[in-house]
Write a structure and sequence with these properties.
Strand order of the largest sheet: 8-9-14-15-16-17-18-21
Distance between the termini: 72 Å
Radius of gyration: 29 Å
Number of strands: 36
Shape: globular
Strand content: 25-35%
Number of helices: 18
Largest sheet: 8 strands, parallel, barrel
Number of domains: 4
Structural class: alpha/beta
CATH superfamily of the largest domain: Glycosidases
CATH class of the largest domain: Alpha Beta
Bound molecules: acetamide, zinc ion
């Protein structure tokens, strides 16, 4: 008897990215021992796709599937047809139709690209465990269905930074495999950085002899650097291997060679490229370097043209990415050669000098029939005539490019930076930036609504970026990239009106099984519980939530790990005293993600109104005005619990609502100079019964400016029982980073949380 999977019976289609149009029929197509794959005669590309498909079937079904020639008018049964005959041309080069009947499967497209995507969709119609070498279900059933599909955007990118950390060729291939499963078509390979030059250039051997090795690496988010040399690069042969592999999956590899900034590794190898004499060392720390390539020195252009000449020989991509981001102008302002160039070219400032630099490189690329892509800083000082802008700092850069008639690729930090935290920063691995969950990625529409239809055509696509300062291993890359890159794939491929978060999550159930089988260590950040509080009648209640739906949240307040019998969360609840809340999402009696926990403080100030007297930074607001009394204590992440003040003092007042007896006031601070965070010099509490006359408690002095690794300290006054209604808190900030700091003179931060009054 035929074992029909429940999914086929339900007729649910779990394809991601969701196709343009799906019409579900009745019945199934059954893949059997005598099923054949038929392709157009003498079509090498289709043959390669058929081989891939046959190999997948053989791997899991355990029997070989024969490949034959398709004869358009034959009545062959029990066949899977891949053909360029009679396609729906309105679907474009990457579009396809996929028609499954009881007797055959036919995939049509105008090109092999579309056929490849049709095959990806076909594979997603199989039971999830068909990816297994030993599937439970040996018979494959495919639901009868008719699919018409085409991409929304031509450019569907995923990036990988191999400058900060690099990853083996085999892993890059795995990354490409997963991209292909979800119809991404562009791999942006970030090959050069301050911390390492990662591609062999034969004319300049020192780039890899010197530039591919740093003597140590910044440790986590501390200011320390280890003394373990970190080294590696890709040979040109390896790059060609990756490009060919990607091409077999209809993925273009775009190389990025950074200029004029993020080039310290190149300067270490060839110091004459800089404005000053050097010497330079390959950077061991993250961040942005003042040392960039000189724009006044013609040999710098010779160098980059030579490098690009080799790159163009290796990479056949129409686009070449030349970086262009984060190039401070401090050296150029002082450099006689740069200043002479500004004069001789009639430029008005250093921004225009950067524009000169990029335009000169663009002329070279255009002469070789290639197009330049640069990060959105290339807008400053005037865009190069044909440049495509990669908008990263925000969507405005994409709007600016499109309104100037230039193409743009959207990769704004708020939606597309997959190095950011994807769950509660308190429990996620070290990361850059803010919290960027799967749902937030999914919520993004790459076309800014302010654009006219004509301007919107310049938004050619969207990309996710995986920067690797805190990402050292292939597993860590997978954790950062997935599943967010799959949400990105859907917003890159699928029509906006077909996308729906709940439906996406339902389909992801099936996709997670496929990812498990592919050995992908994706994040389950969406299946963890956010533990937070809400103010209700001047007290804090605990609020638990997750991005998922139809799953139960269970929690404990006794320190135990949640189990299926733990307390069921249905509404915000009160806490009698300070506890650790632990919570998890449960599905079918099992924890779906991981357990999250949060220390919640209950004290005399909890939930009491706060008046802000000196504004905190909107970049690190904590939970906003009430952050200091919200019960959520500062965690190991600035993004969770803490409230930050940038370059200014802190001052606020809490109203306990009536005079009460108090005996202690306490507030925590965190210091980590490598993140520009210092202790305040001094913290003072003042008490008042009427809000008019104040009693100042003795100030707490901190060691504000010394070098140190991350540490936390409390300002605390224990006092004889005193009647007070109002408590004022004042923290005096050092305001700027000290003399010894890499970024001396820049504004420093102070971070505080949580006011505890007993
Ligand atoms: C960038 O993130 N610096 C492009
Ligand atoms: Zn210079």
């Amino acid at each position: 008897m035929l074992a029909i999977s429940s999914f086929a019976m339900a007729g649910s289609i779990n394809i991601v990215p969701i196709p343009t149009k799906v019409t579900i029929g009745e019945g199934i197509f059954n893949l059997q021992k005598d099923t054949r794959i038929l392709i157009d005669e003498n079509n090498k590309e289709l043959n390669e796709i058929a081989q891939l498909l046959a190999k997948k079937f053989e791997f899991s079904a355990g029997f070989p599937v024969k490949i034959g020639v398709y004869k358009p008018r034959s009545k062959a049964k029990n066949v899977i047809v891949l053909t360029l005959e009679s396609p729906d041309a309105t679907l474009g080069k990457e579009g396809y139709t996929l028609d499954v009947s009881r007797k055959d499967v036919i995939i049509r497209s105008v090109s092999a690209n579309g056929i490849f995507y049709g095959v990806q969709s076909l594979l997603q119609l199989l039971p999830a465990d068909s990816g297994n070498a030993d599937p439970k279900q040996k018979m494959y059933v495919i639901p009868v269905v008719s699919i018409k599909d085409m991409p929304r955007f031509n450019y569907r990118g995923l990036h990988l930074d191999v400058g900060r950390h690099l990853f083996p060729v085999d892993f890059i291939k795995k990354y490409i495999n997963i991209m292909a499963m979800y119809k991404l078509n562009t791999f942006h390979w970030h090959l050069t950085e301050d911390q390492g030059w990662r591609i062999e250039i034969k004319k300049y051997p020192r780039l890899t002899q010197i530039g591919s090795t740093r003597k140590g690496t910044q440790i986590g988010k501390t200011d320390d650097v280890d003394s373990v040399p970190y080294s590696g690069f890709y040979t040109q042969e390896e790059a060609r291997e990756i490009i060919a592999y990607a091409a077999s999956k209809f993925i273009t590899v775009i190389p990025e060679i950074e200029m004029p900034g993020h080039s310290v590794a190149a300067l270490a190898a060839y110091p004459n490229l800089a404005c000053t004499a050097g010497p330079f060392e390959v950077r061991t720390k993250w961040g942005v370097s003042d040392d960039i390539c000189c724009a006044g020195n013609d040999s710098v252009f010779t160098f980059f043209q030579d490098v690009l000449t080799e790159i163009l020989d290796i990479f056949p991509s129409a686009y070449i990415h030349i970086g262009g981001d984060e190039a401070p102008k401090t050296r150029w302002e002082k450099c006689p050669k740069c200043q002479a160039r500004i004069k001789s070219e009639g430029l008005s400032n250093e921004a225009e000098l950067q524009s000169y630099f990029i335009k000169r490189i663009e002329r070279f690329l255009i002469s070789k029939n290639r197009h330049l892509i640069g990060w959105d800083e290339i807008l400053e000082g005037g865009l190069a005539p044909e440049a495509t802008v990669m908008a990263w700092r925000g969507i405005q850069a994409g709007i600016d490019a499109a309104t100037q008639g230039h193409d743009a690729i959207m990769t704004p930090v708020d939606y597309c930076y997959f190095d950011y935290y994807q769950g509660d920063p308190a429990t996620e691995p070290d990361a850059n930036g803010a919290k960027l969950t799967l749902k937030t990625v999914y919520s993004y529409n790459p076309i800014p609504p302010v654009l006219t239809a004509e301007q919107a055509k310049h938004i050619i696509g969207v990309q996710g970026n995986v920067w690797t300062e805190h990402v050292k291993t292939p597993e860590a890359v997978e954790y950062k990239a997935f599943p967010r890159a799959i949400a990105l794939a859907e917003l890159a491929w699928s029509q906006q009106e077909n996308r729906n978060w709940d439906d996406f999550l339902n389909r992801m159930d099936y996709q997670f099984q496929r990812l498990d089988l592919a050995g992908v260590k994706y994040s389950k950040g969406s299946f963890t519980v956010d533990i937070t509080t809400a103010r209700n009648e001047n007290r804090n209640q605990v609020v638990l939530s997750s991005e998922t739906k139809d799953m139960e949240i269970r929690y404990s307040i006794d320190g135990s790990d949640p189990i299926p019998a733990s307390l069921f969360y249905d509404k915000p609840f009160d806490l009698p005293n300070s506890v650790i809340v632990k919570a998890a999402v449960f599905k079918n009696g099992k924890i779906a993600g991981s357990i999250n926990q949060r220390e919640i403080s209950v004290n005399k100030a909890s939930g009491k109104p706060v008046t802000i007297l000196k504004p905190y930074s909107f970049k690190y607001p904590g939970t906003g005005d009430q952050a200091m009394t919200d019960g959520l204590t500062g965690t190991n992440s600035y993004k969770s619990g803490w409230q930050g003040y940038e370059g200014c003092d802190m001052e606020y007042m809490v109203d306990l609502l009536k005079p009460i007896m108090i005996s202690s006031v306490k507030l925590n601070f965190v210091k980590n100079p490598s993140d520009w965070v210092l202790f305040p010099y001094e913290v003072m509490f003042a008490l008042s019964i009427d809000g008019k006359t104040w009693e100042n408690l003795p100030p707490t002095k901190f060691d504000a400016n010394s070098r140190s690794n991350r540490q936390t300290k409390a300002a605390e006054n224990k006092i004889p029982e005193t009647l007070a209604r109002y408590i004022k808190v004042i923290g005096i900030s050092p305001k700027t980073l000290p003399e010894w700091h890499d970024y001396k003179g820049e504004p420093c931060w102070i971070f505080a949380d949580e006011l505890i009054v007993e």
